[in-house]
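C-alpha coordinates help. Consider this.
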Amino acid sequence: MAGGGGGLAVPERAKRGKHSHRKKKKRLGFALDMTPLVDITFLLLTFFMFTTTMMKPQMMEMKIPPAALNNVEVKASDLFTIYVREDGKTFYQMGLDEPQAVEFDKIKNVAKTQNLIPLKKNRLITFLKLQVKTKYETLIKVLDELNLAEVEITEEIAKDIDPATQKPVERKRRFTIAPFSEEDNTKIGGL
Protein backbone atom coordinates (compact mmCIF):
# COMPACT_ATOMS: atom_id res chain seq x y z
CA MET A 1 0.00 0.00 0.00
CA ALA A 2 1.40 3.12 -1.13
CA GLY A 3 1.32 6.15 1.08
CA GLY A 4 1.69 4.00 4.16
CA GLY A 5 0.09 4.39 7.40
CA GLY A 6 -2.69 1.82 7.44
CA GLY A 7 -5.59 3.64 5.87
CA LEU A 8 -8.16 4.96 8.30
CA ALA A 9 -6.48 4.00 11.53
CA VAL A 10 -5.84 6.78 14.01
CA PRO A 11 -2.18 7.26 14.70
CA GLU A 12 -1.05 6.96 18.29
CA ARG A 13 0.03 10.08 20.02
CA ALA A 14 3.50 10.37 21.21
CA LYS A 15 3.74 10.43 24.97
CA ARG A 16 5.59 13.35 26.39
CA GLY A 17 7.29 13.91 29.66
CA LYS A 18 7.77 11.62 32.62
CA HIS A 19 4.10 11.00 33.25
CA SER A 20 2.13 9.06 30.79
CA HIS A 21 -1.20 10.74 31.46
CA ARG A 22 -2.34 14.33 31.54
CA LYS A 23 -3.48 15.93 34.72
CA LYS A 24 -7.10 17.05 34.72
CA LYS A 25 -7.67 20.66 35.60
CA LYS A 26 -9.44 21.15 38.89
CA ARG A 27 -12.69 23.05 38.73
CA LEU A 28 -12.94 26.02 40.93
CA GLY A 29 -15.80 25.86 43.47
CA PHE A 30 -18.85 28.07 42.94
CA ALA A 31 -20.32 29.76 46.02
CA LEU A 32 -23.40 31.97 46.13
CA ASP A 33 -23.76 34.33 49.05
CA MET A 34 -27.41 34.05 50.17
CA THR A 35 -27.32 36.95 52.66
CA PRO A 36 -28.41 39.65 50.16
CA LEU A 37 -31.18 37.38 48.84
CA VAL A 38 -32.58 36.88 52.32
CA ASP A 39 -32.52 40.63 52.91
CA ILE A 40 -34.36 41.31 49.64
CA THR A 41 -36.91 38.61 50.42
CA PHE A 42 -37.77 40.17 53.77
CA LEU A 43 -37.93 43.65 52.23
CA LEU A 44 -40.36 42.41 49.57
CA LEU A 45 -42.42 40.57 52.16
CA THR A 46 -42.78 43.65 54.37
CA PHE A 47 -43.51 45.84 51.35
CA PHE A 48 -46.41 43.65 50.22
CA MET A 49 -47.72 43.26 53.75
CA PHE A 50 -47.96 47.02 54.22
CA THR A 51 -49.22 47.93 50.75
CA THR A 52 -51.92 45.33 50.20
CA THR A 53 -55.27 45.59 51.88
CA MET A 54 -56.16 42.71 54.06
CA MET A 55 -59.40 40.97 53.20
CA LYS A 56 -62.17 42.28 55.40
CA PRO A 57 -64.32 39.71 57.14
CA GLN A 58 -67.53 39.22 55.25
CA MET A 59 -70.43 40.70 57.11
CA MET A 60 -73.80 42.06 56.30
CA GLU A 61 -74.23 45.78 56.73
CA MET A 62 -77.43 46.86 58.38
CA LYS A 63 -78.18 50.48 59.08
CA ILE A 64 -80.43 50.85 62.05
CA PRO A 65 -82.04 54.25 62.50
CA PRO A 66 -81.96 55.88 65.92
CA ALA A 67 -84.94 55.22 68.13
CA ALA A 68 -87.74 57.54 67.16
CA LEU A 69 -89.95 59.07 69.79
CA ASN A 70 -92.91 59.45 67.45
CA ASN A 71 -94.70 56.62 65.73
CA VAL A 72 -94.55 56.76 61.95
CA GLU A 73 -97.89 56.44 60.22
CA VAL A 74 -97.85 54.06 57.25
CA LYS A 75 -100.64 52.87 55.00
CA ALA A 76 -101.45 49.26 55.79
CA SER A 77 -101.78 48.56 52.05
CA ASP A 78 -98.09 49.45 51.59
CA LEU A 79 -96.87 46.78 54.01
CA PHE A 80 -95.33 43.51 52.86
CA THR A 81 -94.73 41.36 55.93
CA ILE A 82 -92.69 38.17 56.07
CA TYR A 83 -93.14 35.98 59.14
CA VAL A 84 -90.63 33.30 60.11
CA ARG A 85 -91.56 30.80 62.79
CA GLU A 86 -89.01 29.12 65.03
CA ASP A 87 -89.61 25.85 63.16
CA GLY A 88 -88.36 27.56 59.96
CA LYS A 89 -91.72 27.87 58.19
CA THR A 90 -92.23 31.15 56.38
CA PHE A 91 -95.36 33.17 55.62
CA TYR A 92 -96.08 36.45 53.88
CA GLN A 93 -98.87 38.97 54.17
CA MET A 94 -99.81 41.90 51.90
CA GLY A 95 -101.42 44.79 53.72
CA LEU A 96 -104.33 43.55 55.83
CA ASP A 97 -104.80 40.28 53.88
CA GLU A 98 -104.51 36.94 55.64
CA PRO A 99 -100.99 35.50 55.91
CA GLN A 100 -100.13 32.81 53.37
CA ALA A 101 -97.55 30.06 53.66
CA VAL A 102 -94.66 30.34 51.25
CA GLU A 103 -91.90 27.86 50.47
CA PHE A 104 -88.48 29.12 51.49
CA ASP A 105 -87.09 29.04 47.95
CA LYS A 106 -90.06 31.10 46.66
CA ILE A 107 -89.52 34.09 48.98
CA LYS A 108 -87.44 35.85 46.33
CA ASN A 109 -90.16 35.51 43.68
CA VAL A 110 -92.94 36.61 46.04
CA ALA A 111 -90.94 39.67 47.17
CA LYS A 112 -90.18 40.59 43.55
CA THR A 113 -93.79 40.15 42.42
CA GLN A 114 -95.23 42.16 45.33
CA ASN A 115 -92.71 44.99 44.94
CA LEU A 116 -93.40 45.34 41.22
CA ILE A 117 -97.21 45.66 41.40
CA PRO A 118 -97.86 48.85 39.38
CA LEU A 119 -99.71 50.76 42.13
CA LYS A 120 -97.21 49.77 44.84
CA LYS A 121 -94.04 50.01 42.78
CA ASN A 122 -91.24 51.61 44.80
CA ARG A 123 -93.61 52.32 47.74
CA LEU A 124 -93.77 48.95 49.50
CA ILE A 125 -92.28 48.59 52.99
CA THR A 126 -90.96 45.14 53.83
CA PHE A 127 -91.36 43.95 57.42
CA LEU A 128 -89.46 40.89 58.58
CA LYS A 129 -90.84 39.36 61.76
CA LEU A 130 -89.15 36.41 63.46
CA GLN A 131 -90.18 34.41 66.48
CA VAL A 132 -87.72 34.71 69.35
CA LYS A 133 -86.25 31.21 69.04
CA THR A 134 -85.77 31.33 65.26
CA LYS A 135 -82.29 30.19 64.27
CA TYR A 136 -79.86 32.88 63.22
CA GLU A 137 -79.03 30.82 60.12
CA THR A 138 -82.67 31.07 59.00
CA LEU A 139 -82.62 34.85 59.39
CA ILE A 140 -79.52 35.10 57.19
CA LYS A 141 -81.07 32.86 54.53
CA VAL A 142 -84.25 34.96 54.42
CA LEU A 143 -82.20 38.18 54.20
CA ASP A 144 -80.15 36.66 51.37
CA GLU A 145 -83.32 35.81 49.45
CA LEU A 146 -84.66 39.34 49.95
CA ASN A 147 -81.35 40.84 48.79
CA LEU A 148 -81.40 38.65 45.66
CA ALA A 149 -84.94 39.85 44.97
CA GLU A 150 -83.80 43.45 45.51
CA VAL A 151 -81.31 43.17 42.66
CA GLU A 152 -84.04 42.19 40.21
CA ILE A 153 -86.48 44.79 41.60
CA THR A 154 -83.88 47.55 41.21
CA GLU A 155 -83.20 46.48 37.60
CA GLU A 156 -86.91 46.55 36.76
CA ILE A 157 -87.53 49.92 38.40
CA ALA A 158 -84.49 51.43 36.65
CA LYS A 159 -86.18 50.68 33.30
CA ASP A 160 -88.81 53.31 34.11
CA ILE A 161 -88.03 56.93 33.28
CA ASP A 162 -88.90 59.74 35.70
CA PRO A 163 -90.91 62.29 33.66
CA ALA A 164 -89.61 65.24 35.69
CA THR A 165 -85.87 64.51 35.35
CA GLN A 166 -85.86 62.23 32.28
CA LYS A 167 -83.54 59.87 34.20
CA PRO A 168 -84.14 56.28 35.33
CA VAL A 169 -86.24 56.00 38.48
CA GLU A 170 -84.13 55.41 41.56
CA ARG A 171 -85.06 52.51 43.83
CA LYS A 172 -86.15 53.50 47.33
CA ARG A 173 -85.85 50.40 49.45
CA ARG A 174 -87.77 50.37 52.70
CA PHE A 175 -87.04 47.47 54.99
CA THR A 176 -87.20 46.77 58.70
CA ILE A 177 -86.96 43.91 61.15
CA ALA A 178 -89.94 44.30 63.44
CA PRO A 179 -90.70 42.60 66.75
CA PHE A 180 -92.87 39.50 66.66
CA SER A 181 -96.00 40.21 68.69
CA GLU A 182 -98.62 37.98 70.29
CA GLU A 183 -101.06 39.09 67.59
CA ASP A 184 -98.61 37.82 64.95
CA ASN A 185 -98.34 34.57 66.84
CA THR A 186 -102.11 34.05 66.68
CA LYS A 187 -102.18 34.96 62.96
CA ILE A 188 -99.69 32.31 61.88
CA GLY A 189 -99.83 29.90 64.83
CA GLY A 190 -102.46 27.62 63.29
CA LEU A 191 -101.10 27.70 59.72
Notes: The chain has four helices and five strands. The beta strands are 79-84, 90-94, 100-102, 125-130, 174-178. Residues 127 and 176 are 5 Å apart (CA to CA).
